[in-house]
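In the current project phase, we have settled on a layout for protein records. One protein thus recorded is set out beneath this paragraph:
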Amino acid sequence: MSGEKSLRASETDVLALDLTRASGRFSRIAGRVPGVGYSLVAWRVLAELEQSGSARVSDLAQQQRISQPSMTGLVQRLEGERWVERRADPDDRRASLVSITAAGRSALDDYRRMAAARVSPHLAELTDFDRATLARAVELMQRIGDRIGDPSG
């Protein structure tokens, strides 16, 4: 019985590694939208702000694993596009909170549509069964992502 549990744990570890590799590669490839002047980091920041709400520049830098000065520069560029706005942090007036604007949401939606347009023809080449399998995989990935992202979990 112990050997069976060990084998399942090993298979689960391999699946987790394969899923992490495949999803990361897929995101990087699908996210390379020709003619878009912003990096994947910029789109991830907008997506994080959309999902989680306002955040400090330092928190965004930490989440994206880039330096605070680099994130400050990115936030300034996004402010120039009117995609984000800063306001004073009510808990610490020395700091500011960055939030996505309606224009930022619209830009993010456009970017996502362009990325999806790159993927769609390849999905059309798959069988109905394979598309249904991917649809189920999306549900499972979202559920797992929610659990990973839940600070109480």
The chain has a mean pLDDT of 91. Residues 2-30 form the longest helix (29 residues). The radius of gyration is 19 Å. The beta strands are 55-56, 84-89, 92-100.
